[in-house]
Design the sequence.
């Protein structure tokens, strides 16, 4: 049996372990794409996603290892001070994580690398990831210190109706009467 003095000596160690456990504990909240996702002073909204097999123009092409996933996002700082928005991370169904690429070459309206967002300001742009084709969750934070920040996730479902056809141009609509000339329509 422990004596009262021994228990008293163990108390600081137990409290220190409990404090460490609380610091590592992160709140997990999931949001759907298109919803306003508020985490601390930051409010995120994923507007759209799109897949690309290449980026850039014909003279300067970029090719992914897997496929490029572009995520159009809006971030609003509702707090009273300037906040740095860190790079984002995607998580797949198996828990595998993929960091955001820090090179926006060939991405129209790239969100940027240095993301200091003043109070009461909104920034919108595109994030770029190199990931296998699939559904993901975008990890968002309150902009706090690593290990202490509040975390939430935004579901990015794979939408076959819109996402897969991004690389291919839409075919021209067939005319109603292929043999008719414009002058013969009356």
Sequence:
């Amino acid at each position: 049996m422990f004596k009262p003095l021994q228990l008293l000596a163990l108390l600081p160690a137990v409290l220190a372990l409990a404090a460490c456990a609380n610091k590592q504990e992160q709140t997990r909240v999931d949001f759907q794409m298109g919803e306003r996702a508020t985490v601390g002073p930051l409010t995120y909204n994923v507007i759209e996603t799109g897949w690309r097999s290449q980026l850039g123009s014909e003279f300067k092409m970029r090719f992914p290892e897997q496929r490029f996933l572009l995520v159009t996002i809006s971030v609003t700082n509702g707090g009273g001070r300037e906040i740095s928005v860190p790079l984002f991370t995607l998580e797949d169904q198996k828990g595998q994580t993929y960091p955001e690429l820090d090179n926006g070459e060939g991405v129209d309206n790239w969100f940027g690398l240095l993301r200091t967002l003043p109070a009461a300001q909104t920034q919108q742009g595109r994030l770029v990831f190199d990931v296998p084709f699939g559904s993901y969750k975008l990890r968002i934070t309150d902009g706090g210190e690593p290990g202490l920040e509040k975390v939430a996730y935004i579901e990015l479902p794979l939408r076959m109706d819109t996402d897969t056809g991004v690389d291919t141009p839409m075919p021209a609509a067939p005319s109603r009467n292929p043999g008719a000339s414009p002058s013969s329509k009356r």
Notes: The helical segments are 4-24. The chain is about 10% helix and 35% strand. The first strand starts at residue 30 and ends at 32. Residues 175 and 182 are 11 Å apart (CA to CA).
